[in-house]
Specification:
523 residues, alpha/beta, Rossmann fold, GMP Synthetase, Chain A, domain 3, 14-stranded mixed beta sheet, 8-stranded mixed beta sheet, 14 helices
Length: 523
Amino acid sequence: MKPYDMGLLLDECADRGVPTVVHLDRPFDIAPDAGTTHDLPALARLVRTAAGWLAAAGAGRGDRVAIVKDNHWDYDLLACAAVRVGAVPAKLSGHLAPESLAVLLGRLSPTVLVTTAEVLATADSAGVDLTDACRTTVTVDRAHPRAVHVGEFRHAVPPRPVRPRADEPLVIMHTSGTTGLPKLVVHSTRTIIGALARMEASRLPVAGVRRSDTVTNASSYAHGRTFCWTASVLSLAPAEVVVLTDTDPDRADPVLRAHPPTVIEALPAAYARLQPLTTRLDNAFRAVRLFASTYDAVHPPTVRSYLAASARRRPLWMQGWGQSETGPITFRFLGRKSAAWRNAGRAIPLRTRLRVIDPATLDPVPRGRPGVVQVRTPARCLGYVGEAERFAGKCADGWWNTGDVGVLTRTGSVYLLDREVDTVPGMSCLAVEDVVEDRLGAVTECVVLGRTGAPPLPVVVTADGTLDHAAWSAAVADLPRLAEPVVLARDDVPRTGTGKVRRSALLAALTGNAAPAGSGRWT
């Protein structure tokens, strides 16, 4: 099936008799009494029901429907319901600060906001009214004085489905927000479904999903990646889909053991959090043939732990590099003996072109020299909501400026060095982080923060909050000069909804100065 109409995706799967069964680690927020196991006809009914709610709340063709709630895959079911009534869903992470949510909602001016009373109460306690920019606010958990509880719409009849036009806005998602307030990224059916999901819905020889697979996802479902994944994975009809919303190892382990994955896609932060499970007897990853990571790089020790945990003869790790604005740009496969970890792989064939430019002159540089990476892809988004000038500043003659510094090799591979905003002359912060984590087993995470006028500041996370300074000194002796390390607990590191470190916020918290080492011109 070609995944074109997201409003009818579940209906079409159900009509075709797709036998996929979905297992959840907790019930949907929009269907708390429906349990944790669903077939596709049940999910199709849920989308139709939600479409009725949205229509009764006033959403129709061209309107925006904002979704802000706890992390769960029903973000994408609500998005499909919004598309079904002709509206444009905007998925906003409930992990965002109330002040940030208020700004983004102000830019969106949604006709309907679907949220929870808990989210509204948290914002109220911070002195922020999230309902102010919205015509109607609907809560899915309990009543709130400035909202309509979804129970009021229990008898609503879903309207006839509206088919989206290929080049009109289909969905809005936001970037991770590692350097500040996230951008609101607008995609069309042609960009996110036609150029991305349709490609992923092919039964590729190595990376393709098989009908016998159990596909597990542990993600931030407020972000655009899972909207695309929903289209492709359901079109491929695996035997089972497992949705993880909680990556606490002790809570995730029973779910994974009950439904051992053969293919798993997860956030880098989720892989890091679940890593202790790889060393347990008869671990839940023994049947995995393909691990996939998106959003950010995964450090080598973590990759090796998962590949070693698989009992398959040749398990593979598929590493993707991309952005919310473009979808995947490059990919590569890692095996148990792979090296050159900062190699992000080659551009996706027949779809993506890459070049590297000098950040000062903006002229292309020869292969082998570092510069800012640009990409040309049919999957590039339509724009930013409320920030047209910012979007235009990252476009040049069809090329998109990723804001990442890297090297394009003679063979076409890309070696990523840093975000331009984090660039430190003469070194790669990301490479140093890899080396530290590789050499010091006690360090579960290393973040190197570039600063102006001072050596880069390494921040390390350890299980017990301590660091052997003699071991540290030995590990970094041959690396570029670094400041004395700061040791923090994992929960003390500010993060985005996808688990990325908010480097500028961390730098400000530790030094009182968030000035980046780079220019930040393309953030």
